[in-house]
Predict the 3D structure of the following.
Amino acid sequence: MRALLVTIAAAGAFAAAAGSAAADGLPVGGIEIGPSGVSRPGDDTRYVALRAGPNTLVARIEQTGGRVLRSRVLPGRFTVPAVALDGSAAGLAADGRTLVLIRPRTGFPRKQTVLAVVETPRLRLRETVVLAGDFSFDALSPDGSLLYLVQYVNRRDPTRYVVRGYDLQRRRLLAEPVVDPEVFGDVMRGYPMTRAVSPDARWAYTLYDGGGDGHPFVHALDTATRTAACIDVAALAGRAELTDVRLALAAGGGEVRVVAGGETVAVIDAATLRVREPAEREAVPVPDGSPPWNLVAAAALAALLVALAAGRVFFLRRRRRPALS
C-alpha cells in the first residue's frame, strides 16, 4: 500500500524526466519507456507499465483524455521494451491481443532474462518466459505467436549479438538463429539506433551503428517468415554521430527512407531491399517519437489510483475475514 502511494507521488517525476535508473532490457542504461507505453498505429489505446513496489501495474488507457480502460497488477518488475536507443517502443502484437513485457536489467551481462506475456483483453498474465542468458526484446510476429529476441553472446561486448526466435505456442526457444543468408557468420555487431515498422507490422527495420566499424546497416526482419537481411547504408559510412538519424516509411510502406538531420540520405526499396540515392526534393516527414509525457502523467496517476482503490478493498476483505478457531 505504501509503495503504491509513493509511486503515485512519483508519477509527475516520470512525466518530467525522459529517463530513469531502470533499464528496459537493452544493454545500456537510462532508457525507461514503461510510463510512456506502447500502442498500435491508428489505435486510440496505449499500454503502460508502472512500478508498484516489487510488482508492476499494467494499464490500458485512452490516448485522448487518459481514461483508464483496464488495469492489473502483475507479480514482479516488468516494463515495456524499447528496441532502439531513440526510445522506440515495442511489445504489442499487430492483432492487439498479445503484449510482451521484459524485466528491467540492472547490469550487463545478466545470467537470466525474464519476460511476461500478457493477454490484452483482460490484461491476464498468460506466461512467464524465463531464459538462461542475456536477451533483449526485438519484435513480435503480427499474430503474436512468435517472439524475436536479441541474444548477447559476448560478456564483454554488448554490441555482439544474434537474433533468436521463441515459439510462444510451443513455449520453446528455437535452436537456429535468424540470419541473413548472404552474410558470413551468425554474429552481428552494433547498437540499435532507431526503428521503423511496416504498416502491416510484418517487417521491423532497425538501424544499427555497426559497432564502431564505420559501417551502419539496417536489419530488416520479416517477423512472419523468420528471415532477415542486413542492408549496408553507405550514405552513413564514417558518420560519427547517428543520434539524429531516423527511419521513415514512404510510398505506403513501399520505401524505407534514411533521414539524417532532416534530410533523406538513402532510400531502401521494401520489396527488393536494395538501396538507392534519393532524388532531389525527395522528402518525407519523420513522426515525432517523443513520449506524450503530459498524457502519461495523468494516465499514470489515474491508473495508480484505480490500483490503490482495489488494494484497499482487498485489504478490508482480509481484515473482515473471521479468524479460524
Summary: Helices lie at 2-16, 293-320. Confidence is low (pLDDT under 50) at residues 1-22, 312-325.
